[in-house]
Amino acid sequence: MVNEKLIVAGFGGQGVLMIGKMVAISGMENGLEVSWLPSYGSEMRGGTASCSVNLSTDPVDSPTILKPTALIILNLPSLLKYESWAVPGARMLLNSSLVEEEPTRTDIRVYKIPFNELATRAGNERAMNMLVAGAYAAITGYITLENLCDAIDHTFVDSKAKYAEGNRKMAELGYKYAKEHFPE
Question: Nearest CA to 55 among 95, 91, 20, 9?
Fold first, then answer.
């Protein structure tokens, strides 16, 4: 049974909404009931952005999440805002490239991943968000890498089709990194 309540949060321009969208589409492709609810400030790039994603084997009754079972935290303001919301035992994927502070909670599982550094080393900083989605797939198992790559192919079409391969490679890199560093 799956009842994942994920909040993805970071700066505008980090691809926060796209991470959530890819997780939601991948969840649908994996046969789950889903919802995706974006939220962003008027500043957009550089401002704050977040989204809520529900993945469930049962119908989703509300897209709003007040007690997340998972967090993807890409910057310090998001850590400060959302850490206290998580239920005990929640997973937190933490962008250790930008967040130097330690989470204060000891009752959640924290996965520190240097997302920005990995994307820079791979030469594709613009697709860092797909690296994050790949790591989420590997850590949770609620979506598969195959579902994620299919979601990328369905999303990056027409004039954006040229970006599909690079995004798939970044998703694969994130998945591989998480599997190697967090073999659970």
Answer: 20
